[in-house]
Amino acid sequence: xxxxxxxxxxxxxxxxxxxxxxxxxxxxxxxxxxxxxxxxxxxxxxxxxxxxxxxxxxxxxxxxxxxxxxxxxxxxxxxxxxxxxxxxxxxxxxxxxxxxxxxxxxxxxxxxxxxxxxxxxxxxxxxxxxxxxxxxxxxxxxxxxxxxxxxxxxxxxxxxxxxxxxxxxxxxxxxxxxxxxxxxxxxxxxxxxxxxxxxxxxxxxxxxxxxxxxxxxxxxxxxxxxxxxxxxxxxxxxxxxxxxxxxxxxxxxxxxxxxxxxxxxxxxxxxxxxxxxxxxxxxxxxxxxxxxxxxxxxxxxxxxxxxxxxxxxxxxxxxxxxxxxxxxxx
Amino acid sequence: xxxxxxxxxxxxxxxxxxxxxxxxxxxxxxxxxxxxxxxxxxxxxxxxxxxxxxxxxxxxxxxxxxxxxxxxxxxxxxxxxxxxxxxxxxxxxxxxxxxxxxxxxxxxxxxxxxxxxxxxxxxxxxxxxxxxxxxxxxxxxxxxxxxxxxxxxxxxxxxxxxxxxxxxxxxxxxxxxxxxxxxxxxxxxxxxxxxxxxxxxxxxxxxxxxxxxxxxxxxxxxxxxxxxxxxxxxxxxxxxxxxxxxxxxxxxxxxxxxxxxxxxxxxxxxxxxxxxxxxxxxxxxxxxxxxxxxxxxxxxxxxxxxxxxxxxxxxxxxxxxxxxxxxxxx
DNA sequence: ACGGTTCAGTGAACCGCTTCACCAACCGGA
DNA sequence: TCCGGTTGGTGAAGCGGTTCACTGAACCGT
Lengths: 330, 330
Hints:
Two copies of one chain form a homodimer. With 330 residues, the first copy, chain A, is an alpha/beta fold. In chain A, 43% of the residues lie in helices and 18% in strands. In chain A, the strands form three sheets. Chain A has a six-stranded parallel β-sheet with strand order 2-1-3-4-5-11, sandwiched between helices. In chain A, strands 7-6-8-9 form a four-stranded parallel β-sheet, with helices on both faces. Chains A and B meet through helix 4, helix 5, strand 2, helix 6 and helix 7 of A and helix 4, helix 5, strand 2, helix 6 and helix 7 of B.
């Protein structure tokens, strides 16, 4: 049995001070340098370290940041989680990552759980942004949303989806494509739904023939949807996928059907996931600079957790990344 | 300001019971059905929900499972995290995922943090299994290790690396390869280090010419190492990578150098990551059945957290998955 | 010598729940 | 009728910190 941990009272005893004094000393408040040193020494001696749970109960704060992922299965959210963990380290904080595994009810429960854990703030990419509990949540702690979906948050990092859509569709148009399928997925985590609006608007402007298809979430779902799409007689000359991970499904489908990319069909992604450069051909995509997004989110949440009150909205602008999955249509 | 949360005392007040009775009632203990019902009603009425922090402080347990990833950047650990989140949901538990971002000091801090959060158990894939704190940690709560690296754990899911190595090398040998490079990485998270031992043993048995190269961690590192390897005059005819993610680096390097896989060089992976089937050619690899691993880990940790005391060791056996990245050498 | 400020430190009341020891009432059995 | 054993419930002492209101001493200028 590992010897029970030292408590603050033992340290107090050892130094002949009151627990209160020890508490203050260890946090560098209100005490003379000399006693601080004495307390530090005694604490080290006893191997004392403040219990975060007790501290959380008494003070209501923990220093932790929560990251709530709607579905960690999503490649995009994986990248997000990785980046945020790394980014927070540099701020001497750390993230508690929770995964709602695609279940809105669970998302609700976990959001609450996270709040009850007294995180100092949380970063979310909501599964169901329209759910009522977000508002309430945002009122009780700083929340930074990725993708502009929540109102009343402490901050948001939003995507200029109009620009992203324009970039992709103009690119396809410039290479001669006139009929393109737009492949989204239920729970596409990257952009907000209204991206659809931009699609139709841009399609109109560019006089493109658009067909929007929504695939079930996940690689398998995207593959199946893409297979249907590509096997149809009226198959489009290009597919614009609303996430690189969806485009991967198109690659798989093309492979199954013996179609060549971009020979038989052109493909565009949306994200720029690290794997996209490794495929053959490389996936042409809309690069959202995930590093920038992560940095922005970390900056926002750290500021908010430190008490900043100004609500900020950072807009992310994408760039086009050409790689070879889009052919010029003769 | 959101109205302050109801406390157990308010519920007690409302029902005319003592806080203790309410506490028992809500956990379904020692009270008559009738009062249970009364308490439930009052709780619902007041919107009362027990505060997990206070509960943790008083009772020492939380119901949460911690997942400590040495480096979430690693594709393998990402898959693990996803699987475990999903698996735990079925057990009505949830995982707190922490990422040490490759820093052993941070790993230590986070492990401690997790314990201090009173998780009921934790699953780890250690960055530095030789660190002293693991032992102490394992004594204070149930720990399940992925990859047999820790002693004294509540359970482990270990890899039969000898079998894995044999599978890969025999496959290469059977197709005529005699000189193969083995590409590992610092911090290869999948297998335990001693896999190297198996490599040399198997190489001897199969009379293969082996060169072991260790790449820096990450895609960029693997790519660089692979480039050096493939550009050398005495380049091997095949590369066996100790993780699919490392193999991705080889693909990238081959692309850079204008080499064809498997025409100019054959490649074998180790994991079977979902993306491996999408590359061209598909990556032939050693399939570790991550689903099985996850299920095993979840079962072990759930049992241990529920008080099971028997220490279990589950051995995972791999299979060969041929896809096309290995050519027959004429 | 005196009121007025800081400075260092103390005591006790929390934070919100669990748990242990104990009790009253009720039951059936002898 | 009395006794031992359940049942349903209570009170208070924690869990291990933080914080608020307060005190005693030292220091200030006059």
